[in-house]
Amino acid sequence: MNVDMARRFDTVTPGVRRVFYAYAVAAAVLTLGAVLHPGFASWTSLRAVLVVAAFTGFVAAGQMLVVLVGGIDLSIPWVLNGAAIVLTTTSLGQSSRLPMALAFALGVGALAGFANGMGVAWLGVPAVVMTLGMNGVLQGLSLGLSKGLTCASCGSYAPQPLRDLFTGGVAGVPAALLVWIGVALLMTVLLTLTTFGRRVYAVGVNSRAAFLSGVGVRGVTVALYTLSGVFAALAGIMLVGYGGQPSLGLGDPYLFESIAAVVVGGVSILGGRGHYLGVVAGSLTLVAVTTFLQAQRVPEYGRLMIYGLVILVILFAYGRDRSHD
């Protein structure tokens, strides 16, 4: 019976197997934490893990889209930070100005992503160079807008309705988690049930063949980078709503975390393979590992080393799985 189940598992597509592996790792980390620290599995602890993982998951959604076509977005930190600062400096903490502030903040993300996509798709600038340059531009603009001060010093805060939304929830479920569920459904439908999703995978597998098949490769690439910017801006808006105000460097941790969540979630860094459900598991795994190590009171340098080793072990396992495909 076990042999038969193993044979059936081997017939599952590599992408689905990687999603299974990602969730298995997340479950293993959470189980280990529950065994060593009984409070680790409490709803309060799990709620905190899920909320923090949700923010990583928002950013990783955009990162996944560009990785699927063999790209990468290094402008995420200051797209996120810039959108957060634009939101607070535009709204000035006033509820009446919230709709306009939200539009401006999302517009910052869309405009930055669109510029990245145009540079990569139409000007032929390597994605690493284009997005890193955009990150520097947005950093300078953000510092100029905030005059190099924290937003507490500027007196800019998130409007109260936004703060109430993201510090509250529905039936005990955090609002950030509910939005993340919505993003997961949107990404799954977009990539698996639409013509656009099939074009994304086609471009990622072989952009030349996709072009010869009539796919607008440049248009798809621009759209994906634009969406990446929008997701980063959304994360910035939600972080401001959750924390009350932005701070300089707010988005810095999310560059590494977004890339790590994507690759741990089983998305091929070369493009053309991966599912957002795996990225959800990757986000949970990263946050669970960090939380577990903090509960163990592991020093910062030790956490960084173990964090990196866990990622490398998972990637090594994926590499062996791919070699057997």
Automatic annotation (TrEMBL):
A molecular function (GO) term? transmembrane transporter activity
User: Which Pfam family is one of those matched by this entry?
Assistant: BPD_transp_2
Q: Please give the superkingdom of this protein's source.
A: Bacteria
Q: Where are the transmembrane segments?
A: 20-41, 48-69, 100-125, 171-194, 215-242, 254-271, 276-295, 301-319
Look up and give the membrane topology term. Multi-pass membrane protein
Q: Say if the entry is tagged with keyword Transferase.
A: no
Gene Ontology terms: cellular component: plasma membrane
State where the protein is found.
Answer: Cell membrane
Keyword Transmembrane attached: yes
| Entry keywords, A to Z | Cell membrane, Membrane, Transmembrane, Transmembrane helix
Classification via InterPro entries: ABC_transp_permease
Which named protein is this? ABC transporter permease
Annotated source species: Acrocarpospora phusangensis
- Species lineage: Bacteria, Bacillati, Actinomycetota, Actinomycetes, Streptosporangiales
